[in-house]
Amino acid sequence: MSRNPKVSVNNAGVKGFFDRARERARKLDLNEPLRPDIVISFEDAADMVRVLSTERVRLLGAARKRPASVSELASQLKRDPRAVSRDVELLESLGLLHSTYQPNPGHGRRRVVKPSASRYKLVANI
Fold first, then answer.
1. Which domains are delineated in the chain?
2. pTM summary value
3. Terminal-residue alpha carbon distance, the chain
4. Beta strand 6-10 with 120-123: parallel, antiparallel or unpaired?
5. pLDDT tens string for the chain (126 positions)?
């Protein structure tokens, strides 16, 4: 089984949830392998766009290129480190990013942000 699941973000809502559940049940009935995945589903495309703002999508892209500290990401994206930290926390709560803490000699520890997947699929149907 892959340690790096597929991450999909969509606005399929409850219908999408039940469609995915039926498909997974069908695969289990046929003894087909299930691929690990993370699905974040919004009821409304507007909610999805509000949560996954342009800056947060840029943050996901930067973290995907290489794990980096919040301050490195903020510098790279030309954003305030506190805003990047808040966005990292939100994206972590959704399962899109995760952080680890590493020693930072002379400065305590630093938070290193890593992607939860090597690729993200964002789908919005209007």
1. 6-123 (1.10.10.10)
2. 0.72
3. 34
4. parallel
5. 345 666 777 767 777 778 888 888 888 888 888 877 777 777 777 888 888 899 999 999 999 998 999 999 999 999 999 999 999 999 998 888 999 998 878 878 889 999 988 778 777 777
